[in-house]
Design a protein that fits this description.
Layout (H helix, E strand, L loop, with lengths): L1 H21 L2 H13 L3 E4 L3 H15 L4 E2 L4 H9 L6 E5 L6 H12 L4 E6 L4 H5 L2 E5 L12 H20 L1 H10 L12
Parallel strand pairs: 1-2, 1-3, 3-4, 4-5
């Protein structure tokens, strides 16, 4: 088990370092300002990429940014069809080839919704449709037993996007984070 533990740690660190090298500060800055101006953010994904979108939604909700991440693909389609140029769609797909996400991207393009993609570093159909591309290290096979380093790299990109957004109005956002922090209930002392 030690060998498995060490391999996963090594691959995780390598994926994060490679992803860090792919972050373009100007693109990141443009994405943050796009999110700031948007009426709402909708995160799209399936499988493990959906989990990353749900994590992003939980973060942005804490600072009172209107955002959505629907688990049901039919609901994702409805969300996409109701968006407009004042909104932002963030499509998360490691491969950049997921059929459902390509369908979403086509709808968003037709509706003139700005698209931010979070995909592996490769020319893909999804990255070609995106207005802004946030890359993750291409460190996993497209056919894999489970997303590991790709999911971690996607979460890292979301964390960077979120932290940069928080910095735009740090004082107010920290106040919101503190206000929305879930307090643990203290157990009553038993007599």
């Amino acid at each position: 088990l030690q060998e498995v533990t060490d391999k996963i740690l090594y691959r995780s660190i390598a994926a994060l370092e490679k992803t860090r090298a792919l972050i373009e500060p100007e693109i990141l800055q443009n994405c943050v300002h796009l999110l700031e101006k948007s009426s709402k953010i909708v995160f799209f994904g399936v499988g493990s990429s959906l989990l990353v979108g749900q994590d992003a939604q939980a973060k942005f909700m804490r600072i009172n940014k209107i955002c959505f991440c629907e688990a049901d693909f039919q609901a994702q389609l409805v969300m996409a069809k109701n968006m407009d140029e004042l909104d932002v769609g963030i499509i998360i797909s490691y491969s950049g080839l997921t059929g459902e996400m390509l369908d979403i991207a086509a709808i968003l393009k037709k509706r003139k919704v700005p698209i931010i993609s979070i995909t592996r570093f490769a020319d893909t159909e999804l990255s070609a449709m995106a207005d802004y591309k946030l890359w993750v290290a291409s460190s996993e096979y497209l056919v894999r037993s489970a997303a590991m380093t790709s999911r971690l790299a996607q979460l890292y990109v979301i964390d960077i996007l979120y932290a940069a957004y928080v910095q735009l109005d740090y004082g107010k956002n920290i106040e919101r984070i503190q206000r929305t922090q879930m307090k643990k209930h203290k157990q009553k002392e038993r007599e």
